[in-house]
């Protein structure tokens, strides 16, 4: 037997050698022929290798392996294969599986499986098979590409964006070198509703192109879903780069976009989060940007995440869970703030205000839990509970007084409650259950709740007036109402916001505004209530200006039901 020797240059400067036995006619045997027939029958490239002094020898190969080896291995591939065989044959392992990527045009991928042959002498031998996985790898790569890209825009999707942010965080020593922007397109749902999903898709594609054109090389733009985009920015000149990028994006979207026969101007909200050493990973950084985005939707400005906002969000989420349980378990209470007749000095009624003190805990301010209730929809069951508890309290006061009094109670109706609940139907039910006249209830609506859906607000107000209830516009002057609403809606009372009342004695403009509101109410035949009266001087001034009712700490803070009744008895006027 003699050996044919193949050599390849090794980039490390050594020679990687694999030798193949070439049996002479004298060495041919029946066993050798059968071994070759068996190898040739295998559907994959296979061969038998054994360790010789300073080299590895292929003692038998099938044609598939011959073709693979004869295709020409460069130095890197030859060195890798020779080293793998030498290493395996030198160990006592029974089998070994390796992944081999041939460094050639197009790249081919193989799984190399090595299995030791029981030795008949002192020579180490193994069977090596080479499974071509190129098609599988390319398919997996193609599927991963599809999995990581948005099918509509071709941009990276949320998963790819998360990976890109994670890579930036892991590979960057300067932990303040990156920022994430989240961009949300306003009014996008209305475009889908009015023009259809195809127009919405066309808009998204156009927006993606414009945003991409506004970014710098190296910045990553991704579509996170729907009408939300994410941008990973490298900050060359500090945090100001992020704000400049936000301005470029806003400018790029400022020009109207033509869809069919319409020109549509797209506004966007932008939230920004800066990478810092306190950020654990991509999830935290993106979440911080989304927290800032939520604030940006309300302010209309680019907002940058501030430390502590996530904790505040967690606090709101915890409050939501606790509040839901508190409503179900009837753990809330009502306090009542007197509404004072400024002309006579007596008590006209009380505003019913929800209060919450968790069992064993400290009181939670309505300033904190009412916005949470509005955000998560709990304001509807909370509003219903307040209405029922106030009517029940008023009926109980009548029993204690021995006869129905002239008191009325005032209850706030949230904008969310006005939109989602059958307010008039519930009020009718409560009045019937507690046998309270409709004239003894006042519903306070904010200007914003009326503006949000004027037609629905009008239907609700008319239905409440049919129950003989009074309607007050709360916080008048702080919203966006026009005089047309005051004329069209049957409103009985204007409540002047405390922001105008509390400082009016030292502010001529505030006095002028209050005087104008009082004159307007008088001209329209409406009563007025001034909030936030804390001094006798304010009470006297408002009385002189013709204000009907006053409310504030000058008379009393909100009181529990029993104390409120005692207060009424003490100040009751004939």
Key attributes of the depicted protein:
Beta-Lactamase; disordered N terminus; 21 helices; elongated; 574 residues; alpha/beta; EAL_sf; Alpha-Beta Plaits; seven-stranded mixed sheet
Individual helix count: 21
Q: What is the arithmetic mean of pLDDT?
A: 84
Structural class by sheet pairing and helices: alpha/beta
Under CATH, the topology of the domain at 148-307 can be stated as Alpha-Beta Plaits
Approximate shape: elongated
Stretches where pLDDT falls below 50 for ≥5 residues? 1-27
CATH architecture of the domain at 148-307: 2-Layer Sandwich
Question: What is the class of the domain at 148-307 in the CATH system?
Answer: Alpha Beta
Let me know the CATH homologous superfamily of the domain at 148-307.
Reverse transcriptase/Diguanylate cyclase domain
Largest sheet features: 8 strands, mixed, barrel
End-to-end distance:
130 Å
Taking Cα atoms only, what radius of gyration do you get, to the nearest Å?
40 Å
Which percent bin holds the helix content? 40-55%
Proportion of residues in β-strands: 25-35%
> How many distinct beta strands?
23
Structural commentary:
This protein has 574 residues and is of the alpha/beta class. Among the domains are: 2-137, 2-Layer Sandwich (Beta-Lactamase), CATH 3.30.450; 148-307, Alpha-Beta Plaits (2-Layer Sandwich), CATH 3.30.70.270. Helices cover 45% and strands 25% of the residues. The protein has 21 helices and 23 strands. The strands form four sheets. The chain has an eight-stranded mixed β-barrel, surrounded by five helices. Strands 1-2-4-3-7-6-5 form a seven-stranded mixed β-sheet. Strand 1 (2-9) and strand 2 (15-22) form a beta hairpin. Helix 7 packs across helix 8 (240-252) and helix 10 (309-328) crosses helix 11 (366-376). The longest helix is centred in the C-terminal third of the chain and has 23 residues, at 379-401. The protein starts with a strand and ends with a helix. Mean pLDDT is 84; it is low at 1-27.
